[in-house]
Amino acid sequence: MRDIKIFLRKRVIILMIVALIIILLVGLFAELDKFRRYIWGVEPKVTFLGEDLTGYLRSEVKNKVYQLSSHIITYPIAAGLDANTGKINSELKGKIVDITATVKKITEAKEGSQVAPTTYQITPFLTTQDIKKINHEISTYTTIIKGSQSRKENIKLATELISNQLVLAGEVFSFNQIVGPRTKKRGFKEGPEIINGQLSTGVGGGICQVSSTLYNAVQSDQFKIIERHSHSKEVGYVPKGEDATVAWDYFDFKFKNKLATPIIIKGKVEANRLKITILANKKE
């Protein structure tokens, strides 16, 4: 029994010594950390966006700058065209925090300094000036409009929908995507259309003249035809084989802008004429 007590006492003493060593080491490490922060850390009472960064080390400063700067960042918005009016919607520049420069300012700041983030602006890929330069006519095509009043109204509506469309460099233009569903609710009328080689009627009948006119306007090396379908019967408003039929969610007309700069599609219906013009930067 006495041997057991002696053994337990020794174990307790050993545990107490180990615990004491651990406590001393923890305290030592804490003091070493304080010393390290005193030597290499941020000066006392240096604040960044209202937060005290006293004693922060460089890696901690960097993480804190990332965290606190997130609400400052704004992304650029490119200029564009109002599809209804053709007016230019001006670009908005973005703002981003220069993390490296801001961290340097904080770590080198004197005691009590209030450090503001270093920021720089980001210009969007397309500006108002870029769009203003898209004023040179590179192609145009005109067709004669015939037929019923409802057919003419469908042509006019589809022309208005594709007019003022900005097609970026390398972008694919989709007639169906821009014109959308041909429904009475959207203003389309019953008009003549060709189905399986026979003349029939349907909502939006006649708008294939718009897609066909556009097709002829982009037949050059500056564009690549991605999708095009011929009517099952010859049409009279373009030469044989030069038409482009469309049907919502079925047949589409698509082309790719191969130029290094954007283009603008302009469409106009005057009297009995449909004219589609392609504008580009003059250097193209």
Automatic annotation (TrEMBL):
Keywords: Membrane, Transmembrane, Transmembrane helix. It holds the Pfam family VanW. The keyword Transmembrane applies. The chain crosses the membrane at residues 12-30. This is Putative vancomycin resistance protein. It comes from Halobacteroides halobius (strain ATCC 35273 / DSM 5150 / MD-1). The lineage of its organism: Bacteria, Bacillati, Bacillota, Clostridia, Halanaerobiales.
